[in-house]
Specification:
Blueprint: H1 9-18, E1 23-27, H2 28-41, E2 49-53, H3 60-67, E3 72-75, H4 78-86, E4 94-97, H5 103-111, E5 115-118, H6 123-131, E6 137-141, E7 148-150, E8 153-156, H7 167-179, E9 184-188, H8 200-219, E10 223-227, H9 245-260, E11 269-272, H10 276-279, E12 283-294, E13 298-302, H11 311-315, E14 321-323, E15 333-338, E16 347-354, E17 362-365, E18 386-390, E19 396-400, H12 405-409
Parallel strand pairs: 1-18, 2-3, 2-11, 3-4, 4-5, 5-6, 6-9, 9-10, 10-11, 13-15
Antiparallel strand pairs: 1-12, 7-8, 12-13, 12-17, 14-17, 15-16, 18-19
Helix pairs in contact: 2-9, 5-6, 8-9
This protein binds pyridoxal-5'-phosphate.
Length: 423
Amino acid sequence: MSKTPFITKEKAEKIARIYPTPFYLYDESRIRENAQAVKEAFSWNPGFKEYFAVKATPNPRLIQILHEYGCGCDCSSLTELMLSNAIGIKGEDIMFSSNDTPAEEYAYAARMGAIINLDDITHIDFVEEILGRLPETMSCRYNPGGVFKMSNGIMDNPGDSKYGFTTEQMFDGYGILKDKGVKNFGIHAFLASNTVSNEYYPILAKELFTLAVKLEKETGADIKFINLSGGVGIPYMPDQEANDIKAIGEGVHKVYDEVLVPAGMGDVAIYTEMGRFMMGPYGQLVTKAIHEKHTHKEYIGVDACAVNLMRPAMYGAYHHITVLGKENAPCDHKYDVTGSLCENNDKFAIDRMLPKIDKGDYLVIHDAGAHGHAMGYNYNGKLKSAELLLREDGSVELIRRAETPKDYFATLDCLDFYDNLGL
Ligand SMILES: *Cc1c(COP(=O)(O)O)cnc(C)c1O
C-alpha cells in the first residue's frame, strides 16, 4: 500500500504557524470512509457492533465521529469509562474488557450499565461481592492456550498471555454465572495482534462459534453475542497489502452460516473491539528536522521523540516516513532519524533510505493514529504534542492542545517549591 501524507509541505507550514510541530494530524474523511466500510462489511448481522478500543486513541472528538457509525466504546480503565460517559456513550454501548481490575472500576462500569467482560473465573465472586448481585448480561474472555496458527504459520502465543479463562474454566464459569442469575451471555477472545491477513477473524470466529454451541448445549447459558475483539492489523510497511474488511466480514459470515445457524443460534450478534484498524492509518505525526549530525552514522534530529510516538523505541516497530516536498525525490541517503530523549532507542528510523533531508524539512510519520499519541509518557520531562483534526473541508481543528510545563508540574502543586516555578 503506498503511503501518502494527508498534507503538502505548504499546508504543513501553514498549520505549523498556528500549531507548532510536532503535532498529530487525523484525517476525518478517511476515518469516516473506513468506519462506513466496517459497518457495511458486517451489515449481514443485525446485532453487529464495533466497540472502538478507547485505549488506541482516547480522543473524544474522534470517538464521537465513530459513534455516528454506530460504534460504542471498549474500555479497560476508570478514565476510559469516564471519557465515554462524558461524551454520552453509556449502557450497552460500552464493553468493559479489563483485566486485573480494581473493585472501583467494576463498580463504575456497572453504574454506567456497561457490559462487563470478565477476564478471570475468580472475578465472578469479586464482582458479585462489589455489586451485591451480578448484572443480567455478562461476558467472559476465552484463552485456549497453545499457539494461534493461520495458513502462513504461527501468529501469536495465547498460552503465554495473561488474559482469559481456560476452556475448562469457560464451562465451569458459565454454569456458575447461570446459577447466579445471569441471563444473557457473551464470549470474547483476543488471540493475535496486528494480523495483516483476512483470515484472522474468520479462524477466530470459527473457534468461538464452535465453543459457543458447546457452551450453550452443556451449560444452558443463552449466548447472545460473540466478541471477536481487536487484532485486525494495518500494513505499516509500504509493500504490505492492507486487510480487506469486506472479505473479512464475508469470511465471518461464512463460518456463522456453517456453525451457528445449523445449531439454531442464527440470532447471535457479532461484536468487534478494533482499535488499530479503525484509526491507525488515519493519524500521522508531523515533525520538523531541527538538526543533522555526521559522526559514525548520519543522523537527522527531529522535534518529536519517543514521548510522542513510542512504538519504534518500544517494539522496534516500523513507521514509514515521508519528507514533505520531497515525495518524489530519490531515497539515496541513509539516516537514523532520532528524537531528543537521553535514550539511544529514541529513533523513529534506523538505517532508513530517505531523500536528502535539510534542516527545516517536515517529516510525516505514518500510521500513528492508534497506540500512538495515547502511549506517550513524560520521560525527560518531554511534553506530549497537540492533536489536530483535518476536516473534510480542509480546515484544521485543534482536538487536544499540546501539554505545557504547567501540566507537567501540576502534580507537584502540593510542594512548597511549586510557587517558584512561576507558572
Ligand atoms: C488493545 C485491545 C483491543 C484493540 O486492539 P487493536 O489491536 O488495536 O485492534 C481490543 N480489545 C482489548 C480487550 C484490548 O486490550
